[in-house]
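All the exercises in this workshop are built on plain-text protein records. Instead of coordinates, the fold is spelled out as a row of discrete tokens. Once this layout is familiar, the rest of the handout is easier to follow. The record below serves as our worked example for the rest of this section.
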Amino acid sequence: MKKYQLGEFEEVVMLTVGILYQEAYGVSIKYDIESRLSRKVSVGALQSALKRLEQKGYLKSREGEATPDRAGRPKRYFTITALGKRAMEYTKSTRNDLWAAIPKMALELKMNSMLQPAAAN
């Protein structure tokens, strides 16, 4: 079901908009992602993702009040739409199904082989 597909960064942005709730605007989203994930986020990449998510109908935006510290420009606040919530639920469900499908031994064997030193020739 491709219509609900979210890329990894899009998913992070959507989750962050949900976390910030009524305080989700560009700078707050950027700082929250950087703080929580120890990951640098460029303003351009974030703005592109926000615009794309809004075009898909997953987010909607509204303008806040203009403020002098922003040279009279208003902040643009984002909220998750009903369609966006379905996309997030679909993504979470898909990831959970994939994790559940991994045989327990597959992960244990990989961890054990990583911990063992390489055999000497």
Notes: The CA atoms of residues 15 and 88 lie 8 Å apart. Strands lie at 59-66, 74-80. The mean pLDDT is 89. The helical segments are 8-20, 26-37, 43-55, 82-101, 104-115.
